[in-house]
Design goal:
Length: about 190
Amino acid sequence: MSAGGAGRGGRPLRDEPADWGAALGTLTGRVMGPVLMLGLLLAVVFVVWLFAAHGIWAATLGPDPQGSLSAFLHEAFTTNEGWRMILAGLATGFVFAAVVLCISLVSFPMLIDRPVGVPVALATSIAVARRNPGPTALWGLIVALSLLLGMIPFFAGLIVVLPILGHATWHLYRRAVAWPDQETRPGR
């Protein structure tokens, strides 16, 4: 099965097979290094996020852990310190989530599609987010809600949600990033 014909906006689609072999074939040596580097960057952001969350918890509820989950929930929702932790945690989490959204908006598909490095992919992703703040925020909300819904039945829904989000991200990238050779190159 191949994906030929015209796409949205009259752009021709690539005449490539649409199967597992073709999908996994995109993960060549040229692609794996930059994708792994971007993944490592996101892992570092996640670890910094964890340290920030721990710092907020220690600064508001104290460094000693509560005796049980119910004691923690009681302290979090019934004390001023708990509400400060919740509000500071939400604000900090929002900032980290916005950073991750902006740097990964189109960078992963770009690394797979074009022979660019991580700095170019990051700069392009940030530029797309900066030029389109409304749609970027809406996309972030769609991703967050989709992941939340996918996690409800013991994370099994992610089997459906993740490929849909990946496919949608590819189309977002194709519409948001124009290349000089896009109109003249066959398969574009």
